[in-house]
Amino acid sequence: MIHLYYGEGKGKTSAAVGLSVRARGNGVPVVFVQFLKGRAAGEVLMMERLGVTVFRGKAGDKFVSAMSEEEKSETKKISDDNLCRALDLCLRICEKEKSSASLKVLLVLDEVCAAWNLSLVSLDEVESLVRNPPDGVELVLTGRNPPPFMLELSDYATELRKEKHPFDTGVPARKGIEF
């Protein structure tokens, strides 16, 4: 099945992390790809301790809007490499898993909507994966402004809507809360 956590509200990544923890707690392998994120984050450290395989990164520490074309190009390369590595790992897990259970691995594509909208990941690869996920792979997508095909193809779609957020009043992101 395909899960989509989207919208302007806080909690998309947190929902995906929570589902990942639940899956690992039940013995399901989890592969977590974070697009456009490079800063250290507490949830990544904890997921790795639980045995989640995490692929992440971008070129530099800037927001995409402040990146040079060279940094955007390098970020796309990192995103495409991470997606390819994650898919390869998922397929290897599915091939190795001989159980009759249909769920063999949980694959999370965190901030894939932003990567898609900014063309910082292979659009063909992402669309192909969403339209035809490998057997045994449960797919989780997160981000703002999902392309229509993601919303249409998702089995679970949860929109998170912001009412208010401290960032709007100038409070910066806080370690342990926002990252």
Characterise this structure.
Strand 2, helix 2 (42-49) and strand 3 (53-57) form a beta-alpha-beta unit. The protein is built from six helices and six strands. A six-stranded parallel beta sheet has the order 3-2-4-5-1-6, with helices on both faces. 32% of the residues are buried. The model has no long low-confidence stretch (mean pLDDT 92). The protein has helices spanning 12-25, 42-49, 69-96, 112-117, 123-131, 148-153; strands at residues 2-6, 30-35, 53-57, 105-110, 137-143, 156-159. The chain is globular, with a radius of gyration of 16 Å. It has 179 residues and is α/β, with parallel strands linked by helices.
Question: In short, what is this structure?
Answer:
By secondary structure, the protein is of the alpha/beta class. 40% of the residues lie in helices and 18% in strands. The chain has a six-stranded parallel sheet, with helices on both faces.
How much strand content do the residues show?
15-25%
Mean pLDDT: 92
The structure class reads: alpha/beta
Largest sheet: 6 strands, parallel
Biggest β-sheet: strands ordered side by side in the sheet = 3-2-4-5-1-6
Anisotropy-based shape? globular
Helix amount, in percent?
A: 25-40%
Please report the total strand number as a whole number: 6
Number of H/I helices: 6
Order of helices and strands: EHEHEHEHHEHE
First-last Cα distance: 28 Å
Rg estimate, integer Å: 16 Å
Poorly predicted segments: none
